[in-house]
Specification:
The complex is a heterodimer. By secondary structure, chain A is mainly alpha-helical. Chain A has helices spanning 11-24, 37-44, 48-61, 78-102, 107-121; strands spanning 64-67, 71-74. Chain A has one domain (6-122): Orthogonal Bundle (Arc Repressor Mutant, subunit A). Chain B contains 9 helices and 9 strands. The mean pLDDT of chain B is 91. The chains are: A mainly alpha, B alpha/beta.
Chain lengths: 122, 232
């Protein structure tokens, strides 16, 4: 299944987000080995150079690291993964709040609605 | 590393009509490049010049440091827009024909891809649909271990599922030495796998950028930018 990428933002930026998401969700576990660039590119159905660029950025951020000859690994730093999780959650919530605002909902109303839906879910 | 394709002040006229005008291009190795433009913009003319099927009116063109000719044909794998294979031949016969012709032809790879696309090697070309013939031809071209692949409209005639497989083949064939240049107007299908794009309009290059540069600067897909640049 190719990764879900939208068409108006740079591809490498979206690849970074998707890999961050997979690390946070445990799809790629702490300290585990990542698939090769070629394999990742093929699964995501993107250009290998673009995937390479995304991984280089993640490496710069410290979320993955390269061990010479043996490949790329997810960080073992749980704290760092936690920070990434917070960052992703934050940006998702902001995006959601923007949409609610454009629907004309006030802060209090949004919170009440969320609480109701969560209650129903149980 | 050296450029795989260089064009300098390239012109091509057919009588009075200018087909290509002042083409200057440098394409490095290890890239997947989309040559994009509307019908009649000069895409095929440029690709034909690269294959010595047409001679430029003026200007220079070099592929891996050579002028188009015998040396470049060894390193260029070309998919023309029309079929040129013999109708009475079986797929297996065509494969041995290619094996004879090109020292870089990988027979195993060819059979493997035929199998994936459910093409029977014992079938004759004559009995196949247009789309299946196109698949056979593309498999033959991609089974060479070339340095430059020139694909003229590789995905136009095949169904979306085969299209995905073909794009996948292009990605998985990727090597740091080889460049793929493909012409098409089915941009939204291919933009995820491209490094660079070249927009060509009325025989002139109007834009060369990477896909991510376009998305970064314009906040739009390459497809959307194409529709703007070539608005009728």
């Amino acid at each position: 299944m190719p990764w879900d990428l939208n068409s108006d933002r740079p591809i490498y930026a979206q690849l970074i987000e998707q890999i961050e998401l997979k690390i946070c969700s445990g799809d790629y576990a702490l300290g585990s080995k990542l698939p090769s660039v070629r394999d990742l590119a093929q699964v995501a159905a993107v250009n290998p150079n673009t995937m390479q660029k995304a991984l280089a950025k993640l490496e710069e951020d410290g979320l993955v690291s390269t061990h010479r000859t043996s490949g790329r690994f997810v960080t073992e730093d749980a704290q760092m993964v936690n920070e990434t999780k917070n960052k992703l959650a934050h940006s998702q919530i902001n995006e959601f709040l923007e949409k609610m605002k454009s629907l004309g909902l006030e802060k209090d109303e949004i919170i009440t609605r969320i609480a109701t839906i969560l209650k129903e879910d149980k | 590393m050296s450029m795989i394709l260089e064009c300098k002040d390239l012109y091509k006229k057919f009588g009075k009509k200018k087909a290509l005008e002042n083409i200057n291009l440098n394409i490095s190795r290890g890239r997947i490049v989309g040559l994009l433009g509307p019908n009649g913009s000069g895409k095929t003319t440029l690709i034909k010049i690269c294959n010595e099927l047409l001679n430029p009116t003026s200007g220079e063109i070099h592929i891996g440091g050579h002028k188009p000719g015998i040396e470049t044909k060894k390193i260029v794998s070309y998919l023309p827009e029309t079929t040129y294979l013999n109708d009475w031949m079986k797929v297996s016969e065509i494969i041995s024909f290619f094996k004879d012709f090109y020292s870089d032809f990988n027979t195993e790879k060819a059979y493997d891809m035929m199998k994936r696309l459910k093409i029977d090697p014992n079938d004759k070309l004559k009995t196949m649909s247009k789309g299946t013939k196109e698949k056979v031809q593309l498999i033959l071209v991609m089974s060479r271990e070339a340095q430059l692949y020139l694909l003229d409209e590789p995905i136009g005639g095949v169904d979306p599922a085969a299209r995905d497989y073909i794009l996948n083949t292009i990605i998985s064939n990727y090597s740091e030495d080889a460049t793929v240049i493909l012409s098409t107007h089915l941009i939204s299908d291919i933009e995820q796998i491209l490094d660079d794009i070249i927009f060509i309009k009325e025989g002139q290059i109007v834009l060369t950028k990477t896909v991510d540069e376009i998305r970064d600067e314009e906040g739009k897909s390459v497809d959307a930018v194409f529709r703007e640049v070539f608005k009728c």
